Amino acid sequence: MDLLDKYKKTWGLQPKNIDKISSEEIYKMARSKSISIVKWIFILGLIEFSIGIIFMLLNIYQNQTYDMLATDLLTRKYLLYLSFLTVPFLLYFLNMFYNNYKNISVTDNTRVLMEMIKKTRRSVRNYILFNLAVIVLGSIIITFISLKNSTRDIILQNQIIDFQLNFDDDESIIIIMIIITVIILTVIWSFYQLIYGNLLKKINRNYKELKKLDNDL
Amino acid sequence: MKNLETKFLLDFENNQNIVHKVCRIYTTDSDAHKDLFQEITIQLWKNYSKFRGDSKFSTWMYRVALNTAISLYRKSSKRIKTEDYSDIEYKIQSVEYDDNQELQLKALYAAIHQLNDIDKALIFLYLEDKPFKEISITLGISDINARVKMNRAKEKLRTILLS
Hints:
The complex is a heterodimer of chains A (217) and B (163).
Chain A: H1 3-12, H2 23-30, H3 37-65, H4 70-103, H5 110-148, H6 153-159, H7 170-216
Helix pairs in contact in A: 3-4, 3-5, 4-5, 5-7
Chain B: H1 2-26, H2 30-48, H3 57-72, H4 86-91, H5 101-113, H6 117-127, H7 132-139, H8 143-162
């Protein structure tokens, strides 16, 4: 008899009633709150969508309240258009995210389940990438308008008011805008990777393990 | 609704040792065991109305329990390890094969703890005497893949048990 067969036999002899939990206890447990990864992905996704909406609303609100220089107004106008343009995309991502979430079923097979979880996360990641692209586009607009109008007030007043920098030429504006944009993008992206990297570490590892043979054979 | 609950509790009652075994394989302390048991129970109940009865309840239970352990369950990071019941198991892990059933079981669990999550599932289904067809359907891999993976997992387990 093979070693494992012997162990298998022992396994089969395990007492069935050990740690038995009563029906009342099971009843209570079945109704308690889930702490699953899927639930966290859903909550985080909703938070991310809310943040996107809040930023857009703030942008609109600011547009209505502040007295601004002519060039500043122009910038804000373009940024506002940009905000409105993002609305259909936001709805599209929100819909995709929700549908993917709904399709996650623990009764699917293990591979499909993990794929659906990864897909749901990807839909939120794409939404974030889209938002980052909008940030880049926004800063390009600001840079472009300020260069066109040769007015550096915008940057001085809004972005880096404490820096008494002397803008000698257009290149400084571009460089500063690039630096600011890169810093913002890096901070957001690292934060984002940290949250999801941590949350999905187990799934990524298990998925790779399950798929490993597909590549071997 | 009441009927469904009663039926669920009855089905669960008869098969809850499956869930316990999954918890014991995937966790190493009793708090985590309890957490995972609760999460599996939640998932089973949440999806019970979708259980059509075209497969055996126990087959369905294996799938939900393993899926929860492999993909959904996330160990609470805040938890301080208490009542670690694996301590003893780790110590006796090198005990040679003997007839003492309890020691054997402990050695087996300790060895399984050293496998990765997928191998744990494979070995568990092997120990539960599940046919390859069911194993490949549960995990969503081809029959051939299941066989190759199973052989490798068994080999790993054998090495750990003998070391």
